[in-house]
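2 proteins. here.
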Amino acid sequence: MLGTYLVPFQFSQSSTSSRTVSTNLQGVPEGTKMATIAIQGFSADYTDHKQYGFGAFGVSMTVNGLSSASCTITLRDDKTNERKWEGAATGLVTFYGI
């Protein structure tokens, strides 16, 4: 293991049920051959602060080569009432080399 990096992902207000946010990785250690990402935490809220059920809720993260990481949050609410939501997630990228 060569190092770690916390990656923040911000999701602005939208009524789209599934969204992906990508960000560039910073400070990739010299000699890195591969990287993995693990979910550190996440939160998502409907912006009108009413209590709706999310239905099925999913969060996934991936590392795209050594240059960027992506996070997808999916609220399977069938776009009922076109409810807007926003959220955030944090991933921990771990860099590996030889």
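next one coming up
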Amino acid sequence: MGVNENYNQHSCIMTSRPNAVDHQLKKLFGTLVKSEGLDTNGINDYLNKQFKSDDIKLENLSNLLDKNPHLQELCKIPVNIAMLCNIITENTSQVVDINNMQDLYQQMIVDLGKRFFSKHPKYSPNNNTKVLREKLQNGEFNIKELKVLQELASYSFKNSEALTFPGASNNRNDIQDNTIQSAINRCAKKSGWSQEKKPTISDIYSYGILKTELNPNTETIIMHDTELNGQLFSFIHLTFQEYLAANEIITSLLSYQNGQGRLPEYNSEIGNICQFLAENRDNPRYFMLLKFMSGIVSRSGNNDSIQAFWESMTCNLNGVLDLGNDKKVELLMHLLGQIDKKHYQQLTKQIPNYSTIEKYIDDTIKTQGIFKWADVIKTSNYLSPVIQAILLSSSNLQLIVELIAALDNSITFRNSKNQDCQPYDYVKELITELFTKSYQENNNQQLLELYKIIARIIHFIDLDSQTKLQIVESLLTKINDKSSAALVMRHINSDNKKY
């Protein structure tokens, strides 16, 4: 039986990385079922179970999500909300500043580092490790174990399709194999570590970012290299590997950019990195890694590195701007969406051909229609002034609410009074105005339209709970679909607890 016949007889279920499904693969299936992850109720249920005995933590996390709808969008993915809960639990005495996925993974690696420091003898408080601890807290991954993990993540990602790797090969001095020991050896060669100063496989494993595949019950493993050499490892989640690999590539790029006098061999290494990025920018496997890289390089403030990265993303091998097709537009939107919105205008000035890139994206969305690109806008957090204007002129109220509600709150909108306001506040004003006006004018058609999306907009109606309840109850009497009405009432009753 041929490949096409096989596809005709079977279903394909992808539980992760839906962007990896290309157009040709989609054409082989008649139905596409998309998993949206946790909805608002699912997120709330998860938080209530995690912090059922700690109202303060629950309130702090709820407030954090309310202020950052884009972070709430990330929490639809179970691993992300699990990490966020862990971070809140670990950092009870300090304010956690998390605005996007990069912040989330960085803080999680920092927290794992704190645990590692507390249990590893060479990082005990009585040793001279204060500077390393402070640098880790500031997001500088200078400790040897993290350097090896970054090297391992990057090398494995670039040189092997497999997501697993052994502890060591027969040749413990090898630097070419995709093993933990080879990653240690490569880092030792780059950094000049002596044999005595090398971390062990046990040290790397103890950091907490790797898991064993041959013996998943890690509690029973004796933590010595002799026991770990033959184990098969992987990162605890693919996104950790992608984040660490992105960090390693940007760190390498920065180190070569800062090379003394820009020696020829440094230029060669920069060229190799840029060529690697250019060759893989259209490969769905590298989508998440490139997103992380965009955010990391923009925060570096290094003009040369920013230019090198973005030219790799947008130019062909002859240096000519090559923006490509819809997939490239989607990639560019996600890359731009990783840039800190608080300093967006300043940071985008460093991107070569930024105006051309933005115009190409906007023209594509205008031509094809904003509805087609709604999911990408929501997940990428990209919103140029042109797209904002198109969005606000749309007659599709549900589209407006869903998109604006999911956007980063550092984006500002102009309200009807020509005042700057955050997305959440803009939606609140818009919905309240429409809701109240429709009710006062007894505009049943508009009220029915609002009803259809009331489960999504109820949080944005800025009225006291009693008035809100009266309006909605009056509206629901006009609805024949009692099961839908009951669902809406559950949303309302849940929401009223906040008022």
